Every structure is written in C-alpha cells, then in structure tokens.
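Figure 2 data, in text form.
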Amino acid sequence: MSSDALLFGVLTHHGLPYWTLAMISGFAHTIYTLIVLFIVFGLVERLGFCGISVWRSLCGSVAEHESSLLPLPVPTPTVCVQLPMYNERAVAARSIGAACSLRWPREAFEVQVLDDSTDRLVAALVDETAAAWRARGVRCSVIRRERRDGYKAGALELGRKRTSAEFLAMFDADFVPDDDFLHRTVPRFYSRAGEPLGDLALVQGQWAHLNALDSLLTLSQSLSLDDHHARRRESAARRATPLPPPKRPSPPP
C-alpha cells in the first residue's frame, strides 16, 4: 500500500470529506515539490557559478584566486576580533572558542566579547569561557555596558575605542570562522610589495552553513543561498567606487 493510500485510509476512517483529504495531500506534495525545485535551482546555479569561474581562469583573470597566496606583511599587523552578543546561550561558548582559535601571532591578536546579555546564566557562561581562553594565553576580554545604546553597532563602537589594533574582524555570535580566516583576509589589504592599499577599507568573507547536509531542506537552502550571496557580493564589489586618496594637509604659507 502506498503512503498516499495509507494517509487517505487513516483520514477517511476519521470521517473527513474527500475534498479535505485532497487539500491535505496537495499541500504535502507542494512542500516536497518546492524542496526538489530548490535543490534543482541550487545545482543549476552552482554549475553556472563554476562555469563562470573556469571561464575567467582561462581568460587570465586569476588575480582574485592568487590573492589568497599573498604573504603576510612585515611586521605583522595587530588584529582585534569583535564578538557582539546578546543572551546567546546556545552559541556563546562555540563562538568565543572559534574566535580564540584563529591562527595569528598572539602578541598581535586579541578578542573582544561585547556582551550585552541580561541573562545572568549566559553572562556567567561568557565569563567562564573567556577566562578559560585567557588561561591558554589568548587575550580575551569581556566588555559590558550599563545601557544598550545603539545595540550591536553601539557595542562594536565601544570596543573599537578600547583597542589600538590596526584591523577589526567582526563576527556574529552564530558564526564559526575557519582558523585560517585572518591569513586569507588580512593580506588583501596589502600589495605584493607589502604596501597598504589606500583604496580598500573592508573585506567580507563568504557565508557557509554548518548544517547543509542535515536534510534535503537544508541542502536546498544552502545551495541557493551560498551561490546567490557569492554572485551578489562579487557584483557589488565590481560596482563599488574606490575610496579617494587621503588628503594631505597643505603646507603652511
């Protein structure tokens, strides 16, 4: 007996009319059809994305791929990782651990946990996790405010004022960056000769999904969102206006 026949048999036994059963069955089939369409659309978009990348490589446009091979500047610039949080009970420890595990010279590295949590248990968890990483040699500080002025942006600004680092790396509380994230992003701010680029102020990493293979639904969503964001970010970068060169003060008369 098929699942449809079994479903109809069970619902008919409870006295539901035929048109109601047809609507329920149609709704269920619509959901599965949409999931399949998402997967097909994601696969088509992924193949198109790969094809465009191969075409650009064959045409000699490989600078974006070679940028990940740029050496680190000397001396190593200082980096401050900022983690704004608000009652993130489920992901706070994981986020702090991922940030503190980033590979970077420890003398040029620090982590700020910008915790606006109102839940005392979450605040205690944040303090405990940060203390554990400090014991392992990572400069990990917890910054709190009496009022959440500006919400996340206000917390980030307060952290910025309390660090002298040359670069800021910002992650939401549910992000888990790869340990080589800084090695792949910081060199992009420099030329191959090690000179800072005056027209670049921001580098944004590509999102990924931790649960992409958990089910057909998460697979379909990850395929569509990953490639959509990749093309959208590239398109925005190509349309971006370069920063003007810094103005030099005029000499005194």
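Caption note: Residues 1-70+210-238 form one domain.
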